[in-house]
Amino acid sequence: MPWAAPDGERLPWEGLHGDMDKLLEVMAGPVEQHDVYADIAGPQGDAKLELRWITMLTMTGALRRFAANCIYSLVTYGRQPHYIVATFDDSSAAECARMRLPCADAKAFMPDHQLVDGEHNFGSAAAGAIWWAKQRLAQHLLSKNLTVHGTDIDVVYFRDVRKSYSRAFVKLRADAVFAAEEALDPTEGPRPVPRDAYINHMNAGVYAVHPNQRTLDFFDQWINASTDPRSNNDQVALNRLIHRAYGLCYSHTQCRVTQIQGLMAVWKHPHFWPGSSCIQDSLAEGGHCNKRLMYLHFLCIGGWHNKVKSWETLSNWFLDEDLKPVYADGRGPNGTHPYLPCPDDDGAWDKLQERMDD
């Protein structure tokens, strides 16, 4: 990990925090070819796009351990070393640099808020400003013809990120993949009973989006909604845009129909274990290696102190307070992790291909 690199070793991204284009050239993944539908509605068939992946996350200095833990899981278990870390204040930028991360000075994407370092819990004006700045940054990265994986930092990754997302991009030809704050998707059987608090809601914290005109148009509408008083945060705005800027699809045909209508086609994957619509204190069968999930995102309970406790219960802390590995696969002192690394090298959502109609 960068923070553990020898003092005399210069990392290729160091010194590029103020030059976004050069930072992206260093950090974006290798060129990959993707079969996609062209942007203009019609039966013109497939097109080949050469795309590079980038993961983006935001951090404040006060949440350095969460950011580092997310990055450790992203690189170690998610096999995605191509990422940038956006900061919006000088103190957090300095901490990011001390950690020797691929930092991006992203203050330009927060034009209406002067951020100070802090935890910034859910519902605060500062947290809202960070969320909207993250989406402006994502739009900028898409305009650079990058496939963008956006992630919050209260997230741990278990499986190959690009391989998992590519299942939806290749099999469904979806434009984007978002998480649903629910335990089942429409193809997986009946909804949970009422006491399981089924939430038909899309989460704005973790997603992957291919660059094309549909996705750029979606981000225009999403970001413009930041001034709408009915959309008090980016997630509320996201869910208000269904059928206006995007549509959901669970098969090749559904995605194509959505795109012909000029809308961004989204596959919305279930985030939680079956039978639960919120974070819980135990994992389902297979634990972290259950292929229904690629990652776990802390939801439903506010407060970073609560997240700390839950991550301890679920064995989701891979680094200690000093950012040193906890488990044996990182040469830590606590023996092997209960589940990780997963014994197979396949991505998540392997059953997705069973729902194709192409």
Any overview of this molecule?
Strand 1 (32-37) and strand 2 (46-58) form a beta hairpin. 28% of the residues lie in helices and 17% in strands. It is built from nine helices and eleven strands. The chain is globular and about 55 Å long. With 358 residues, it is α/β, with parallel strands linked by helices. Strands 1, 2, 3, 4, 5, 7, 8, 9 and 10 form a nine-stranded mixed β-sheet that branches. The chain has a two-stranded antiparallel sheet with strand order 6-11. Helix 4 runs antiparallel to helix 6. The chain has helices at 20-27, 64-76, 90-98, 125-143, 161-172, 213-224, 234-240, 252-260, 304-313, and strands at residues 32-37, 46-58, 83-87, 103-105, 146-150, 155-157, 176-180, 202-209, 246-248, 264-270, 295-297.
How many H/I helices? Answer: 9
Q: For the CA atoms, what is the radius of gyration?
A: 20 Å
The helix-and-strand class reads: alpha/beta
Sheet bearing the most strands, described? 9 strands, mixed
Oligomer: single chain
Low-confidence stretches: 38-45, 190-199
**Terminal-residue CA separation:** 42 Å
- The tally of strands reads 11
Shape: globular
- The helical percent reads 25-40%
Mean pLDDT: 84
Sequence of secondary-structure elements: HEEHEHEHEEHEEHHEHEEH
**Proportion of beta-strand residues:** 15-25%
How would you briefly describe this protein structure?
The chain is an alpha/beta fold and 358 residues long. The protein has helices spanning 20-27, 64-76, 90-98, 125-143, 161-172, 213-224, 234-240, 252-260, 304-313, and strands at 32-37, 46-58, 83-87, 103-105, 146-150, 155-157, 176-180, 202-209, 246-248, 264-270, 295-297. Strands 1, 2, 3, 4, 5, 7, 8, 9 and 10 form a 9-stranded mixed sheet that branches. It has a two-stranded antiparallel ribbon with strand order 6-11.
